[in-house]
Design brief:
Length: 152
């Protein structure tokens, strides 16, 4: 009985974290509207700093765990950035296809599919996806830096 209660509690906490992450991704996708260059540069700089810091910390025996933590934070930023980019791109695709208002999940699905198909293009596809990922990381960092009154 206690294990069921603990499982339900962890599930509720997990759902709350997903909702916070989804709100952050939605806000980041709105910030991506109309400007991509500055967030892209911020994303490239953040990725380079994260990878270099993680490599330097992992190379030392004492701070290796901190390096793994920095790498984990970078991966979370990358997944949130990719989600923000996919949501923005999906909203543009669905907006061009129909004039009715759609939900977050269909836009996220269509944007992720578009990014996947873009990555399959020879020679330039992976580069375009990496630049889109860098722009997404940049807008997530901007959204985290500029907090509004509506929570995360």
């Amino acid at each position: 009985m206690i294990s069921v209660l603990a499982s339900l509690t962890l599930f509720a906490v997990f759902l709350q974290r997903i909702e916070i992450g989804l709100r952050l991704v939605e806000r980041s996708a709105q910030r991506l509207e109309g400007r991509c260059l500055v967030p892209m540069l911020w994303g490239i700089a953040a990725a380079i700093v994260c990878v270099v810091a993680a490599a330097l910390l992992i190379s030392t025996k004492i701070l290796a765990l901190l390096g793994v933590l920095v790498l984990g934070i970078g991966l979370v930023l990358a997944s949130l950035g990719l989600g923000a980019t996919a949501l923005w791109l999906g909203a543009k695709i669905v907006e061009a296809g129909q004039s009715t208002e759609i939900g977050t999940l269909p836009a996220l699905k269509s944007g992720a599919a578009a990014l996947l198909l873009t990555a399959l293009l020879p020679y330039v596809g992976w580069l375009l996806v990496l630049l889109a990922l860098a722009a997404g990381i940049g807008v997530v960092l901007e959204s985290l830096a500029v907090r509004r009154g509506d929570g995360l």
